[in-house]
Write a structure and sequence with these properties.
16% strand; 9 helices; eight-stranded parallel beta sheet; TIM Barrel; alpha/beta; single chain; 243 residues; globular
Length: 243
């Protein structure tokens, strides 16, 4: 069964890779400018381990409770794999201590209070030896000002970026967004690209643009995305996670 599933994942990974290569060529960009983030939420740890075997070492989750257990299980399954875990879902401040134990990057920072909580938790983890490096973070922005979908207004990015730079122990790497439903994703990603340019004026190391998923990664890459978050196109319809 593992062999069959690995074959399925290998085929899907090859198809997604072809799409990314084609999109980069169309945009006049190098393939290595775009990172593939495999979104393994609701799928078992074995799928994550098999993806790591296939070279997909950047894995993403959107719920701390599921991710913490899964990261531990994958570490046991593949102790030598150099996996980087990314938190891409909405995050409550009371989960900060748990998240910093497993995540290399949090892409969904959308408030000063969350940034402060992550910085405090990261400092504690560094001091206690639970971590050996700062936490990378991205600011999640809303491209349609719909609070239900998460993210801050574009006008608030500069203020939150300044706060992240001030608190220390977390490193601002860029912006993350989801294209609004029912709109042209290209327009949304162009807006995000302009916001990224403004951010880099004061924070030159915040170069990451996390945008584009299974259905719109081509448009995102055309507008400068450096990280596409792909779940369904890699793993299929949502499965059932490990206990």
């Amino acid at each position: 069964m593992n062999t069959a599933r690995k074959g399925e994942l290998a085929a899907s990974l090859a198809e997604v890779e072809e799409r990314i290569v084609a999109a980069c060529e169309a945009a006049g960009r190098a393939r290595d400018e775009v990172k593939l983030l495999a979104v393994t939420k609701t799928f078992p740890a074995l799928d994550a381990a098999l993806l790591a075997d296939l070279g997909a070492l950047d894995l993403a989750e959107n719920r701390d409770q599921e991710a913490a257990a899964k990261a531990e299980e994958v570490a046991a399954l593949r102790p030598d794999a150099r996996i980087r875990w990314h938190m891409v879902g909405s995050l409550q401040r009371n989960k900060a201590k748990s998240v910093v134990r497993w995540a290399d990057e949090v892409q969904s920072v959308d408030s000063e209070r969350l940034a402060d909580a992550l910085a405090k938790a990261t400092k504690s983890a560094l001091d206690s030896g639970q971590r050996d490096h700062p936490l990378d973070v991205l600011i999640q922005v809303s491209l349609d000002d719909d609070p239900k979908r998460g993210g801050i207004r574009l006008s608030e990015v500069g203020h939150l970026a300044a706060r992240i730079a001030y608190v220390g122990d977390i490193r601002l790497r860029g912006l993350m967004a989801v294209a609004p439903l029912g709109t042209d994703p290209a327009e949304a990603f162009e807006k995000l690209a302009r916001a990224s340019e403004r951010l880099r004026e004061d924070h030159p190391n915040a170069r990451e643009i996390s945008a584009g998923m299974s259905n719109d990664l081509e448009q995102a890459i055309a507008h400068g995305s450096t990280c596409v978050r792909v779940g369904t196109a890699l793993l299929g319809g949502r499965g059932l996670a490990s206990p």
